[in-house]
């Protein structure tokens, strides 16, 4: 005998009813199923009918789930106020016969209080929801910030490593040409995990060889030697091969073979090490050892795949976050999108949950899961983007990457975030405070449990709620509003005892979510949850375990358990828990579940020792568990409890576990198509878990019920098979099933009361059905019942339960075999639906003919849907046409601009424009001004700014207008020049104008990674030591050598002083010399006559060491004849002078064209002593071409040598041209020196 049986015996003693046995045998149970307000209202009507028939007190047990618990808890709250068995009978009488009692008045008035109504109430609910949602997203954000810091550190480490490799060797650039800016940096770890997975996979196949080979070491060594021999043969063959066509493919195949050999060799060692030690020499022993080893290897391979996927997802988050932070244009845009998505989900998720029973296809669920994962990814990426915006921007504040500064910012951000999470991580109560549980519990307690509280009605007696509402309101009489908290509404579960004076024992079922069962029970993995039943008086039972007592305050209150039992919308939903859908629920703040901690369950004192692992970041881990739908269930310290319907929705499971002989079940779950899914679930779980068989019955075909005077036989007309209940041609509304317990227990019966329409209904119900075609299976999402709705479900419950009196139920129990037979027809088989049992005298139809007119409404509804679909398609087509028209207009506008631009002469900075061209520039300027005025105010200029041609037209026109004399500028030219000067603050829109000072940046361009290693990377984004930079410079030099200055040089659009700053990073000298040699022009180009060179680097910058900017710097002319003659026999002194500058390159820098003649005279003399002297660079002209201010000239001509080997040559340069007053000094230590290089900076007024 368990504790429930003891309570049943005690309640029977209080009632002193001879019809009930004195012991706990032949228990009767009432099951009130889930279904929200619909179930609560229908069950209220059913309970009223049972009380009216004086049979309610015969039910020893009352099991409730979700919505059924609303009315069940109200009823229990009434019974617990009884002080004697007589009081219990008075409660039964009031429930069954008094229409004007306070508790009925309260339920009618406030049964819909669960949904906020009115501006003030809605504002309160919105404030609660917004506060909780903000807190949840903040906590999720803190976890994402930690991830962002980790990803940022990984990015910096990878980028720094790649940069260092580039400085060390040219070869690395060859292997990085496939690298794209869209490849996340953390993905460099993927090959390592892929390699580990390949080794474990190879070990799986190598296990047989590795385990059976007695001389494993010798076999492994021979295999390794064979692999080495194979490599040697290939190298020898390849060195002799002249076939170039298949070289790439041949190399790929051979390298794959090398890799497979290496993997196999390592895998063999891993396989050998994984094999467990042998116990004996029997074949079975080896087979078992090999099986275990293969299992371990497969698990390790699985781990590698999981880590591989995790790194891949982290990379997506990383790259998406960078896009949000620096490439999208505004980090507010994704935040606004996510906020709108959260609001829409908050509205749509309850509707989707209500429509779920109507959807049979798995596609919507798959789409919802995918949407959940995508939104979770976007949310995480946005928080990571905040980290990048705060810290990673420091990487680009100077010309070279600021790794240390960015890393410092990340670590400084880590301190407060990690500190907050560690300090507050043990605050597990946050999870319940931030959910909607407290809000839901408060509303349920006041609207339903408050109906039994006499204090709300100003009554003094404990059973004051049974008193009649006065027809004339007495003066001074007042009630406490449902919006106010009132003492006595709620009570701890341990004190909630409706059975104490004869009421039923109240059993509430909730679901303990458990997505992973460590014991390996596959069926529980399908269920993803366990039933937890709590009983009035403070007892609980998990699944089919023993009943255990609960202590305050961990027992919670009856209001809390009622709210938990009705927590239908939560990240965990039992068998329908899915990762993506859990993310949607958490993201939208739809969290009604409750975390029940071990401290609460076991009533541990505050400060009691807990496992360190369970406290560390418990809050964050719990929230992430909700987000990903991962729950440990009873195996963990903290249990996530939700709606009992997530395990079993009828409530009859708990009654079957107590071996109830009679069960009256109100099956009120949403079932518009009468598929009986909840009954199916009950039958299956009763058979699997309890070993109980439930066989549904149908009336015998030879059983006449019409024309008989026997009252019980007349009532049988209401019964039918499940198919008959679902058939529109039948009037059956009750079903009977036989319960087969084990051989030691008496069989029982299950009476199912399904909300449905049948003959004899009151006229108001019939009319309500005519106006509401879904009645009585309206969606559970509708929690706001109108007066007509409430009364209709309430009266339907009374009507369908009106035949269930004590005598009839007892008669069914005794004579079921006489009047019923097993129903072998499936309720899901449409062909088995009968005509309602006409042979048994049943009516031929469920509804009056006038209600059939509602089918017309359905047809019209389909028509309306079709019309809406056509309208939507027309709107989409209209939008598509408008977009195509806009694109055409954009192309035409650009074409008109290009036609005008084609007539303009070439312009360069500082080049005067003839007055005759003023009108041509004015026309293009007018077109640009008109374009700006049209596009900018409406925000449509993005396509224009994205066009390289449009940018070139704008720049050329602006340059031409600027070069024109002010008096010759047209009005359009003046407007254009003014618009390009932001400081003027002109009224003309400036969205298409690019100020001239932005063409040359003094910092690194912000991009994903400081440098772009791809084959198509732009010059400013390439690594300082990238050979492709020198190829670009060589191409520029060749072009300018043949065709004159470039209008737009890729190298000139980079960072200010890029050459010297790149060189300062320390490119390898040998590699630099090789790149410089490779970038020399072809012989044909070198033989062209020397023209004015392109501008070399600015003064103050070390010239070509990083990347020479002038043609002459890249293309030193051939040694002059005098230099060659120096090698002919002559005097010893002449030979020494001729060799002093051999292999030394001398760069001449001047400050204006007036110095060029003097400098040209120096070149010939220095070449005579062996120096290589490229073309002269005018640093002022270079600065002017690039739109920069000119450098400060030196006051005395200065010679700077880069290394000691060049010092003698540097000292000889002045005397060679007849002066000894030049300053000779080494290159600054802050700059990277290039061997055999000298710079000569000639002062504007050189000393003779």
From TrEMBL:
Domain of life of the organism encoding this protein: Bacteria
Gene Ontology CC annotations of this record: cytosol
Compositional bias (Low complexity): 1099-1114
Keyword Membrane: yes
GO annotation (BP), single: glycerophospholipid catabolic process
GO MF, one example: phospholipase A2 activity
TM helices/strands, residue ranges: 140-162, 182-205, 217-237, 249-271, 301-325, 370-391, 411-433
Pfam family, one: Patatin
UniProt keyword annotations, A-Z: Lipid metabolism, Membrane, Transmembrane, Transmembrane helix
Annotated segments matching region Disordered: 1080-1126
Residue span, PNPLA domain: 30-131
PANTHER family per the UniProt record, alphabetical: CYTOSOLIC PHOSPHOLIPASE A2 (PTHR10728), PATATIN FAMILY PROTEIN (PTHR10728:SF40)
Protein name (database record): PNPLA domain-containing protein
Taxonomic source organism: Paraburkholderia caffeinitolerans
